[in-house]
Write a structure and sequence with these properties.
The chain is an alpha/beta fold. The chain has 4 domains: about 45 residues, no CATH class; about 160 residues, Substrate Binding Domain Of Dnak, Chain:A, Domain 2; about 150 residues, Rossmann fold, CATH 3.40.50.2030; about 220 residues, Rossmann fold (3-Layer(aba) Sandwich). α14 links the parallel β7 and β8. The N and C termini lie far apart (about 60 Å). Bound molecules: iron/sulfur cluster (SF4) and Broken Fe4S4 cluster.
């Protein structure tokens, strides 16, 4: 691994500029924080009661117990499942906002929004046993929305969406007592069980972590994706572009950053109106250029081909171009440093969520019932700011990459099987015949502790070179797109021969963009479709597949990882691992939990070794399915033919 801060040249140029201008950005602050606390890094610092904080010495030279007697495994397990709770709560609370808006849309009380994918609504109505008959779309949507929203507080379970999982998986969850109830209940139970003096057996704590993570993955997150698709349209493959070179010198540049498409969809709509275009012109600009960062970027990219300015670690450096009139943020993954970075620039940081404010930012609260008006106020504020641009602050960077985006699990179905016989059969057949060795899901953030983008890119290149098709979401997708891996031609050229052949035949890149981090539920659905198609086992744990979050930083990544593990998937994390100070717990997560749920975790700081771990797991699954060897073509002689005919 290189010691560079970023693998991306444009980001590197702007990191250098930040150093020159003495603007403090994430890498500088990491350096100031270093060396970081070893106890915290290894998960063995506890501060959940006022007898602490307590630290357990992982090397055996100091205390081995907290004041209350808690040992390293209990402390690290509590910290770990609290990460699951926070991560799952974040995704699922996003989902709750979507469900609430969905109900208002159905009631006709949210002007600007509409039901766009009626087919998907009807499919979801069937999941929820909502009568279709000759009822109007809005009537159906209202009942679906209300039943969906009730899932957050479902006290007994099972959650409706868990019925989409393979039957064998559902039975296993029941046997293990981890079939999820509503995410609100599961998260509260984690907070209760991790309070001082409650649950103190690490495996028992991790089981609740699984249950809460499943309530997010197969509940809050999955419903967020479903309802967003119904309201904003299910993504279909389209061409998009990525990187900071897409910011336009002559336009009002507005960056939407965060997670919830409720706001960004309206900003897209408003910024395309003649009224706003004229308004931008009246301020001296050519027009309005909208771009995204982080998962909001993925949302507007896959539905509207709005360019992605960058991923998580590019949020600060984007401001250093001097081209950004407004960075409009909502929730999650927004650095508090943004207003400070923007202080020497004209960029306005605009917070919009009623649950998230930042010191130094302008707050224009977004209200879904007046969505268009809120969006218009925000876009106008950006246009007004165009005149404040400072010529001495302009630092143009050149360069962007094209990519194909928008592979929902439904479109994979259509693409592979054709619109008349939509099916996962061709994918399964190509896995069975070995042209596609297996499926890798590579997701997650950036982290300044590892070279920005590098681990994602190196790992995925190794996977596709070995004929593993890759599904990607979140900031990982941004990293991979910048390297051309989401482009059928440049990406295809980096794929192994047989994977390339399949991709060329279907016309897809070897790395399929499936959306934002809340859309990892699409990956669960795609994997479930593979199981249901047949020939690759009866459960998610049996298919030749593995996941990775190489540059993770967010608690949401731990929640996603845990719902994948609890769904039977092998998951490799890079950069850092939060339980190293608790050897028994770590052994259990890496080698032990799989005996129960079929999936397990691994940690590997080297991308090539990380890819090889995934490939070894895929090969093991191929062996177990009996599809590891190429079937020899047997030339039959007359005696063999007579034997077959005789036996027929
Ligand atoms: Fe220390 Fe126990 Fe309190 Fe944690 S719960 S801070 S280990 S006394
Ligand atoms: S935005 S959670 S840095 S993927 Fe979803 Fe990116 Fe990770 Fe945030």
């Amino acid at each position: 691994m290189s010691k560079k801060k970023s693998y991306d040249n444009l980001t590197t140029q702007l990191i250098d500029l930040a150093a020159e201008k003495k603007v403090s950005i994430a890498w500088d602050r990491l350096e100031e924080q270093s060396p970081q606390c070893g106890f915290g890094t290894m998960g063995v610092c506890c501060r959940i009661c006022a007898m602490g904080p307590c630290q357990v010495d992982p090397y055996g030279n100091g205390p081995q117990k907290g004041v209350c007697g808690a040992d390293a495994n209990t402390i690290a397990a509590r910290n770990f499942v609290r990460m699951v709770a926070a991560g799952g709560a974040s995704h699922s609370d996003h989902g709750r906002s979507v469900a609430e808006t969905f109900i208002e849309v159905a009631k006709g009380k949210a002007p600007g929004y509409s039901i766009q994918d009626e087919q998907k609504l009807l499919a979801l109505a069937m999941d929820f046993d909502v009568e279709i008959g000759d009822r109007s779309i809005n009537e159906i949507a209202l009942e679906v929305g209300e039943k969906a929203l009730a899932q957050w507080g479902e006290q007994h379970g099972p959650l409706v969406m868990t019925r989409r999982a393979p039957l064998k998986r559902q039975q296993l969850w029941d046997e293990l007592g981890i079939t999820p109830r509503g995410v609100d209940r599961e998260v509260v139970e984690i907070m209760h069980r991790t309070h001082m003096g409650v649950d103190q057996e690490y495996k028992h704590l991790i089981a609740q972590g699984s249950r809460a993570a499943l309530a997010d993955g197969w509940g809050g997150s999955m419903l967020a994706t479903e309802l967003q698709d119904i309201m904003f349209g299910t993504p279909v493959p389209a061409v998009g572009s990525v990187n900071l070179g897409l910011l336009e010198k002559d336009d009002v540049n507005i960056i939407v950053h965060g997670h919830e498409p409720l706001l960004s969809e309206m900003i897209v709509a408003v910024s395309m109106t003649d009224e706003m275009k004229e308004y931008a012109k009246s301020k001296g600009a050519r027009g309005i250029n909208l771009a995204g960062i982080c998962c909001t970027a993925n949302e507007v990219l896959m539905r509207h081909q709005i360019p992605m300015a960058g991923n998580f670690l590019q949020q600060e450096v984007a401001i250093l171009t001097g081209l950004v009139e407004a960075m409009v943020v909502d929730v999650q993954c927004i650095m508090q440093s943004l207003p400070e970075v923007a202080a020497g620039y004209h960029t306005e940081i605009i917070t919009t969520s009623k649950i998230a404010k930042m010191p130094g930012a302008k707050h224009i609260e977004f209200h879904e019932d007046q969505a268009l008006d809120s969006a218009k106020e925000i876009v106008k504020a950006a246009c007004d700011n165009f005149q404040n641009r400072k010529a001495e602050n302009l630092h143009l960077v050149e360069g962007s990459r094209d990519m194909v985006v928008g592979f929902s699990h439904e479109t994979i179905n259509y693409l592979l099987g054709g619109s008349y016989r939509a099916s996962y059969r061709p994918l399964n057949d190509n896995i069975i015949n070995g042209k596609i060795r297996g499926i890798g899901a590579v997701v997650g953030c950036n982290n300044p502790k590892s070279t920005h983008d590098e681990y994602h890119i190196a790992l995925v290149k190794e996977l596709i070179k070995n004929n593993v098709i890759v599904l990607t979401t979140g900031c990982a997708a941004g990293s991979l797109a910048k390297e051309g891996l989401l482009d059928p031609i440049s990406g295809g050229a980096m794929a192994g021969e047989t994977l390339r052949e399949v991709c060329e035949t279907v016309g897809i890149p070897p790395v399929l963009h499936m959306g934002a981090c809340v859309d990892n539920s699409r990956i669960l659905m795609a994997a479930t479709a593979v199981v249901k198609e047949g020939g690759l086992g009866d459960d998610l744990s049996e298919i030749p597949a593995a996941g990775a979050a190489p540059e993770w930083m967010s608690e949401k990544a731990i929640a996603i990882g845990q719902y994948c593990v609890a769904s039977g998937v092998y998951v490799v994390f890079g950069t850092t691992w939060p339980t190293h100070g608790a050897p028994e717990l770590t052994d259990y997560l890496f080698d032990g939990i799989d005996k129960e749920v079929g999936g397990k975790w691994a940690f590997e700081p080297d991308p090539i070794k990380g890819a090889q771990l995934m490939i070894a797991h895929i090969d093991e699954k191929r062996r177990a399915l009996g599809i590891d060897k190429k079937k020899e073509r047997v030339l039959m002689d007359m005696a063999m033919r007579r034997e077959i005919e005789g036996g027929a």
